Amino acid sequence: MVEISLVDYKQTDQLGACEMQVIIQTLAVMSMSAVALTLHLSPASAQSGEVSECAVNAIAAADATAQINALGRAKNLARQAAEAANGGLAKYQAAANMHGPVSIAPCKDNGNGSWTFTVMGGTPGFQTPTQETIVTVTSSANITDWTVKVDSNRAI
Question: What does the DSSP 8-state code read for residue 69?
Answer without folding.
Answer: H
